[in-house]
Every structure is written in structure tokens, then in C-alpha cells.
Specification:
about 60% helix; mainly alpha; about 110 residues
Amino acid sequence: MRWLIVLLLLLPMRVRAEQEPTLNWLLDGCRGVAANRPGGDPKVDACLGSVRSVISVGQINSDICVPDGVDASQGVAIVIQYIDRTRHSADAQFGQMAYAALKASWPCGH
């Protein structure tokens, strides 16, 4: 079951039927979160939703252990830093990059 969730998460998301968000489109939304741009902006909402989904899947898989008192906006900051400092291909997927960033920053003590 959890592999199905991961698979669904890593498939390209559809915000609108005619537009598949790219990594850069979602990253712009994440920068909006960091700048406290108000909700209701599709990019901001998509970023927050994506990061929350990644966190949920990571917790289900015991790969991501969120510290107490941490919220999704702090996860967004980690994802932005990771993507900015990591070389990635033009076809890189936001979900995969976010998962790697959060897993590295909030690992579980397996």
C-alpha cells in the first residue's frame, strides 16, 4: 500500500487539466511560502500540498521523522535550500527532490 502512495506522489501532479506543474513552477510557489505570500495562490497552495504529502509518505515509510513543533513551512524552507544547492536535470520531479531533502534533514533513527 505505501508503495502505491509513493508512486502516486512521484507522478506528475495536475493542478489544472491543461497544465502540469514543473519543478520550477512549484519552486516558485515554495518561494511564495517563504515570503509569506497569502494562500489562494495556486503555486503556493500546490507547494504546501506537495510538501505535506511528501512528509506524510515519508512518515508512513519511516524515512522522515518530523521534529516536534515543526510545521510544513519549515519543510518548504528545507526543500528550497536542497533544490537550490543540488544540480538537477531539466526533467527532475519536485516530489523526488522534496523527499530526498526532507529524508536527509529529518531522518528516522532506523
